[in-house]
Structure to design on (418 residues):
């Protein structure tokens, strides 16, 4: 009985093999004739039987399946899927130690990589971020050594608001110890155009040797680690996971102390969650790294005003102006910091309406502050003459100082701008 069962099984396997070969033969002929729809249909039938096939038939199936999907390069929307199938074939033949189809497949994979990389870049420029991410990732799966495409995919995911997917890819890069440090190889062709060979030095050198390409250059790219930590933090921030966001910044700063972008990103995260103290602290750290950026001093000054530290605020605005003499906003905010001091005086005046002597003394102090603030608003208006907010403040100050002529001139300017 056992012997009969074995014979029956062998006959059944033989039948399966014949059926597989028949479907593959149909697919092969269909591909030759460009009838990819028939090829796909035949391969779909063969797919049900392929698990039990020998390695030779499996390799043929994978190759034909990839060819049918690629469809001679006529359907760009299928390139990513075709690339995945060709890659599967290459991995399979490498595994079994036979390379019957690998050379042909490798050529098409290279074509797909070039096409998809270009398509992904165009999609990104067109703000079609979801498609760009998919195409960049497809290139990465076909050429895992080009890890920059995985980073590009993660970056596109961020812009597509696929923040969790983006961070998964960034985490994958970190797990791979990716730094982004690599060398790009270029040369100038016979028409004087610069040709970028990416990381393929061998191809560049060969072209220089046989095609008379000139001016070969090797450009070293800097580490991308800081950017990865920054983008991961921004992904968490977009998801309003501020604790995780700041933790990722802290992790990055530990590895990359003094990284300016990380500190500025940290400051913006604090600002987004309404933590003024954290925002100011990060800006103060940023100033130590980049002491020539006037915007940093300006923003610290704004936070100092919020903290009622008037003199400190003025000193930061003055430093911003020292670095950027035409900084209208800094002049304006020096005025704000000075006028801010009149609030407590006005409140005290209102509490002493019947004490004329004290009231007048307080009013005199208030007038002194208005006079002190005035030149800063005038300068701000000179630098930004169409700023109605500045003109409104000037009008009010002139009114407080009983400077009627100047007040009327400002009113006329405001009317002219409306």
């Amino acid at each position: 009985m056992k012997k009969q069962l074995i014979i029956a099984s062998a006959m059944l396997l033989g039948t399966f093999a014949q059926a597989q070969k028949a479907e593959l033969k149909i697919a092969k002929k269909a591909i030759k004739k460009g009838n990819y729809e028939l090829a796909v249909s035949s391969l779909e039938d063969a797919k049900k039987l392929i698990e039990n096939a020998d390695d030779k038939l499996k390799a043929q199936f994978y190759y034909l399946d990839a060819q049918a999907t690629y469809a001679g390069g006529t359907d760009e929307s299928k390139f990513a899927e075709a690339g995945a199938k060709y890659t599967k074939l290459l991995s399979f033949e490498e595994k079994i130690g036979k390379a019957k189809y690998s050379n042909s497949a490798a050529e098409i994979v290279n074509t797909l990589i070039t096409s998809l990389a270009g398509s992904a870049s165009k999609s990104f420029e067109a703000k079609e971020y979801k498609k760009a991410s998919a195409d960049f990732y497809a290139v990465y799966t076909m050429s895992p050594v080009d890890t920059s495409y995985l980073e590009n995919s993660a970056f596109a995911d961020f812009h597509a608001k696929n923040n969790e997917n983006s961070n998964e890819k960034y985490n994958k890069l970190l797990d791979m110890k990716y730094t982004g440090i690599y060398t790009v190889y270029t040369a100038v062709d016979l028409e004087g155009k610069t040709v970028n060979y990416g990381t393929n030095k061998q191809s560049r050198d060969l072209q220089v040797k046989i095609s008379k390409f000139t001016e070969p250059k090797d450009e070293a790219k800097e580490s991308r680690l800081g950017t990865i930590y920054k983008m991961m933090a921004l992904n968490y921030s977009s998801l309003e996971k501020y604790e995780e966001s700041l933790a990722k910044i802290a992790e990055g700063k530990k590895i990359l102390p003094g990284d300016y972008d990380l500190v500025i990103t940290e400051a913006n995260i604090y600002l987004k969650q309404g933590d003024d103290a954290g925002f100011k602290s990060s800006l103060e750290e940023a100033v130590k790294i980049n002491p020539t950026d006037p915007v940093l001093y300006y923003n610290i000054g704004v936070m100092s005003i919020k903290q009622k530290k008037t003199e400190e605020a003025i000193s930061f605005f003055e430093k911003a102006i020292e670095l950027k003499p035409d900084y209208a906003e800094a002049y304006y905010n020096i005025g704000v910091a000075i006028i801010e001091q009149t609030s407590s005086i006005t409140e005290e005046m209102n509490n002493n309406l019947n004490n004329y002597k004290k009231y007048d003394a307080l009013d005199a102090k208030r007038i002194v502050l208005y006079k002190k603030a005035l030149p800063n608003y005038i300068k701000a208006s000179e630098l930004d003459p169409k700023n109605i907010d500045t003109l409104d403040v000037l009008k009010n100050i002139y009114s407080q100082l009983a400077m009627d002529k100047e007040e009327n001139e400002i009113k006329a300017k405001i009317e002219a701008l409306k």
